[in-house]
Amino acid sequence: MATILIVEDDSSSRQMLAMLLTYANHRVIEAKDGIEALGQLMAERPDLVFADILMPRMDGFEMVRRMRGVSAFANLPVIFWTATYDEPEAHALAQACGVKYLLAKPAEPEDILHTINVALNELPPAEPESPLDFGYAHTRLLTDKLASRKASPLAPPVTPAPRPILVIEDNPMDIDFMLQAFEEHSISNPVHICRDGEEAMEFIEAHQTPDDANLPLLVLLDLRLPKVDGIEVLRHARQYAAWKQVPFIVVTTSGENSDISRAYELGANSYIIKPVNFLSFSEVIKHIKVYWLLTNETQFSESRRPL
User: How many helical (H) and strand (E) elements, i.e. helices and strands, does the chain have?
Assistant: First the structure.
């Protein structure tokens, strides 16, 4: 008998797995998301983790990345199962955080039990494999997932292609929250990410004409950035005619009156205090979509709406 931690936000799927594994004489622990799972790991020390990938607050990839940072869990076997990602697109990132096994939902009970049995009986590697740049790989997977919607037969054809959304943000977790919220609310505009103010200013300087396909439809701007802060990025952008027409939404942890006043003085269109959890973040993105992408009229009338 093994102790198995099930990490799954869907209660019916979690219940089904728990019944199956209990029937197979395993002890089951449950968690609804990655944050709850990390607490269960420390308290229960399971023999295996069986986890969904896309979950609120913290997804499976980030959960495992943090788990691997604790020596006691460096070689703990993990099985991912998912209906959100195709197997090929998730394997590289799964391997980057030390996950060898991946099942697609729905999976047959015998396939689940067989994979668990193989994972439990496999010897741990002598040395962990050299990890990929997880932050960039994780972000790339999510942005590629959003971009792939353009080719989906379920998506209505739109011509020309929609303008991108520019995200200027250095915090990997907040980037992850944004991209997952875009996915949840079917925002499939291409996403370009700048992780510091200097990179953002270079992007602004490289795209200055209205007919440039990379001139964004919308900018989500953090103020607390490395190298050059968000206030300076906003000031720099508003020097150029084309960028004076692009809506800037400040999404930041700062609620200081001086920051709010300065942002509006420099041409910010909206100022939002950054939410602290995924559910709140998702709600903010929903409202941004309703107003800025569906209701508001922009200079890019041919591509104002997402796919």
Answer: 12, 10
Kind plus residue range of the DSSP H or E element containing 31: strand 27-31
On whether the 3-128 domain is CATH 3.40.50.150, my answer is no
Topology (CATH) of 135-303: Rossmann fold (3.40.50)
Nearby residues of 78 by Cβ (< 8 Å), 6 or more positions away: 48, 49, 50, 51, 64, 67, 98, 99, 101, 119
Q: Containing H/E element for 294?
A: none
How much is the average pLDDT of 235-263?
94
Q: What order of strands is seen across the sheet that includes strand 78-82?
A: 27-31, 3-7, 48-51, 78-82, 101-104
Structure tokens at 192: 């370009």
Location of each CATH 3.40.50.2300 domain in the chain: 3-128, 135-303
The strand pairing partners of 102, in sequence order, are 80
Q: Render pLDDT for 270-299 as a digit per residue (tens, 0 to 9).
A: 999 988 777 888 888 988 888 888 777 766
Q: Is 132 exposed, middle or buried (0-12, 13-18, 19+ CB in 10 A)?
A: middle
Q: What is the pLDDT of residues 210-231, one digit of tens each?
A: 888 899 999 999 999 999 999 9
Sign of CA dihedral 58, 61, 62, 64: positive
d(CA 229, CA 197) in angstroms, rounded, equals 6
pTM of the complete model beyond 0.70: no
Q: Are 136 and 113 in contact (CB under 8 A)?
A: no
Q: What is the DSSP string of 153-208?
A: TTSPP-SSPPPPEEEE---HHHHHHHHHHHHHTT--S-EEEE-SHHHHHHHHHH--
